[in-house]
């Protein structure tokens, strides 16, 4: 990147330009940094590296003995649970009743349908064991019906 580009050019191109402090005297670098900071709206640097969170967490874990660390961990866990429960929007009494009714009706309908299917196949196999020709005919009808259904559904999806 050419050295004659200015901050205004950086904003046009979206690129950032960093000046090397070894080329200028320290007073000039500070003045330039202040100008760039004011123009770009970025806070000035601290002049030191920020410690990583991992090192901060390791330092906190080393404090205290085994019992105090475990008790502190449990306390922190329950505080987190409590804060999450405070964020929950609980349903009103009417909503809870309505949703309970929906669940119960769905449960009863599904159990009746599954019970009917089970009863149908139980009776089919009971009859089929007595007369295998009926069982083979029902199986053949089911296979043909499945193939027809697959053919029709694949034809619809190709459009």
Tell me what the structure shows.
This protein has 159 residues and is mainly alpha-helical. The protein has three domains: 1-50, no CATH class; 53-87; 93-157. The protein has helices spanning 7-13, 26-40, 53-61, 66-87, 93-130, 132-157. Helix 5 crosses helix 6. The longest helix is centred in the C-terminal third of the chain and has 38 residues, at 93-130. It is elongated. The chain starts with 6 loop residues before the first helix and ends with a helix.
Cα separation of the termini: 55 Å
- Overall number of structural domains: 3
Q: Ranges with pLDDT <50 over ≥5 residues?
A: none
How would you state the average pLDDT, rounded? 77
Tally of DSSP helical segments: 6
- What's the helical proportion of residues? over 70%
Gyration radius, rounded: 37 Å
SSE string, helices as H and strands as E: HHHHHH
Name the beta content range.
Answer: under 5%
Number of strands: 0
Class inferred from helices and paired strands: mainly alpha
Shape: elongated
Largest sheet: none
How is the topology of this model organized?
Layout lengths: L6 H7 L12 H15 L12 H9 L4 H22 L5 H38 L1 H26 L2
Helix pairs in contact: 5-6
Features:
single chain, mainly alpha, 159 residues
Summary, kept brief:
The chain has 159 residues and is an all-alpha fold.
């Amino acid at each position: 990147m050419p050295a004659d580009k200015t901050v205004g050019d950086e904003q046009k191109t979206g690129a950032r330009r960093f000046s090397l402090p070894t080329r200028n005297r320290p007073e000039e670098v500070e003045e330039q940094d202040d100008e760039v900071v004011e123009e770009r709206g970025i806070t000035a640097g601290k002049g030191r590296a920020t410690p990583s969170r991992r090192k901060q967490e390791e330092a906190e874990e080393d404090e205290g003995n085994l019992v105090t660390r475990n008790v502190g961990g449990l306390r922190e866990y329950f505080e987190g649970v409590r804060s999450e429960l405070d964020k929950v929007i609980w349903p009103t009494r009417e909503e809870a009743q309505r949703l309970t009714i929906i669940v119960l009706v769905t449960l009863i309908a599904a159990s009746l349908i599954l019970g009917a299917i089970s009863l149908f196949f139980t009776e089919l196999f009971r009859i089929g064991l007595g007369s295998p020709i009926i069982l083979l005919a029902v199986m053949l009808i089911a296979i043909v019906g499945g193939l027809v259904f697959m053919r029709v559904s694949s034809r619809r999806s190709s459009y």
